[in-house]
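Researcher: Sequence recovery benchmark, item below. Answer with residues only.
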């Protein structure tokens, strides 16, 4: 069922973001009217949706935004809003709260200078930070989300400290994607090899954030399967969960302001639209998609991803990222495992723009992928597999874990293909260390005064 729905209420926007994939600014000429929008909310409730995120443009620039929130909350849905917050006044915030709004996430894309430049409006950083503080003071659940480009990396540690001070509970980071306005600003895009710098930093910040009571989570276009993978995908630090492929059309759908339905809100409209609620009810569109897979990502892999160790689990990661960059899904260079594997061969990948994007919302350009030496010098291009079809399945294979190098493994591997360790022996050593630590913690608790022992967390490490 579409457990989580992201709904672009309007494309009207009061920012001028240089990386905006939907090219937001003006309203779509044919946005749903109030009655149509409320009917969509009713359909979501029937389908079993539990969480609704309102986006734009700016959702609060639509006059009936609080009616839509109230209807959804009346059905028992959790309703959040993602915003740039430039004009999220006290009056608007109070109206949202009165309608039942549960939380807001504010886009903060670096420190003040970088954020204001990327968002195209001076003062937008100060407005966003202020909105987080005011929303938190009103009891809303608050979070921040950050698009990462080359200049953002160095600012992430200081940005974390600032966001912690606002009282957020979650910080979501994503890499900037080559769609819409971002195609015109390739300097905002990471080179794939920079994932090798970004991921260790995010791993360090994850632990710093956790100590401060903030969950640092990564969007589905950050990863995959390097030594930090379990940090992002696990509910608890001692668990070992991993990425399971693009969620588009499985438990997630996106709605455009004109009623277009997609498997993910970020995907291009062309080639990924699964219908429109003006032609079929949302229930009918979802049922059709369930039968045909029309809202789900392609299972055709090519290039590096076709031969990857994790191909049938990862399925090339984020469809939005790979399609926007290379013109079709199935090959994603923004992968930590891929970057590390290429580096071991003395290689890295670089993207070069070869075609501009159109003017429409969610338009994509085209980039070329070039392999080169680690110092940037030319190398002969390595032959890669043409196409590989990965069988569709409701659930990807559940992987094993190497406690020597913290890499995920195919079930049944006796020796880790990455570090060469004895998988069973390393697992037993890890469990023995956990048992010893539990015993020591129990001994310490037994020595503590009763009141202190009562307050001591009992969760095993």
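Model:
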């Amino acid at each position: 069922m579409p457990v989580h729905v992201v709904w672009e209420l309007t494309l009207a926007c009061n920012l001028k973001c240089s990386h905006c994939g939907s090219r937001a600014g003006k309203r779509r000429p044919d946005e749903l009217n109030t009655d149509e929008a409320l009917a969509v909310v009713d359909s979501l409730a029937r389908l079993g949706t539990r969480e609704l995120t309102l986006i734009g443009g700016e959702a609060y620039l639509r006059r009936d935004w609080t009616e839509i929130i109230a209807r959804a909350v009346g059905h028992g849905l959790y309703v959040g809003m993602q915003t740039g917050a430039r004009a999220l006044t006290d009056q608007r915030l109070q109206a949202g709260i009165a309608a039942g709004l549960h939380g807001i996430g504010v886009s903060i894309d670096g420190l003040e200078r970088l954020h204001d430049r990327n968002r195209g409006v001076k003062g937008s950083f100060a407005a966003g930070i202020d909105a987080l503080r005011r929303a938190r003071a009103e009891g809303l659940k608050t979070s921040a989300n950050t698009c990462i480009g080359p200049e953002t990396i160095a600012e992430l540690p200081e940005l974390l400290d600032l966001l912690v001070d606002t009282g957020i509970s979650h910080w979501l980071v994503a890499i900037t994607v080559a769609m819409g306005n971002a195609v015109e600003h390739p300097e905002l895009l990471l080179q794939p090899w920079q994932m090798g710098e970004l991921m260790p930093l995010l791993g360090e910040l994850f632990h710093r954030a956790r100590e401060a009571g903030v969950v640092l989570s990564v969007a589905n276009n950050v990863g995959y399967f390097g030594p930090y993978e379990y940090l992002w995908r696990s509910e608890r630090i001692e668990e070992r969960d991993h990425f399971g492929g693009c969620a588009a059309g499985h438990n997630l759908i996106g709605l455009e302001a004109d009623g277009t339905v997609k498997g993910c809100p970020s995907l291009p409209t062309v080639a990924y639209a699964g219908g429109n609620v003006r032609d079929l009810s949302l229930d009918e569109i979802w049922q059709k998609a369930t039968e045909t897979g029309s809202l789900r990502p392609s299972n055709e892999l090519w290039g590096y991803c076709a031969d990857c160790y994790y191909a049938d689990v990862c399925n090339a990661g984020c469809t939005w990222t790979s399609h926007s960059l290379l013109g079709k899904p199935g090959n994603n260079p923004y992968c930590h495992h891929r970057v590390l594997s290429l580096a071991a061969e003395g290689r890295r990948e670089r993207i070069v723009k070869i075609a501009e994007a159109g003017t429409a919302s969610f338009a994509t350009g085209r980039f070329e992928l070039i392999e080169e030496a680690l110092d940037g010098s030319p190398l002969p291009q390595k032959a890669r597999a043409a196409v590989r079809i990965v069988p569709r399945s409701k659930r990807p294979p559940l992987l094993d874990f190497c406690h020597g190098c913290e890499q995920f493994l195919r079930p049944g591997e006796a020796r880790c293909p990455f570090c060469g360790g004895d998988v069973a022996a390393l697992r037993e050593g890890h469990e023995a260390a956990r048992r010893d630590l539990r015993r020591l913690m129990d001994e310490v608790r037994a020595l503590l005064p009763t009141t202190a022992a009562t307050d001591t967390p009992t969760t095993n490490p």
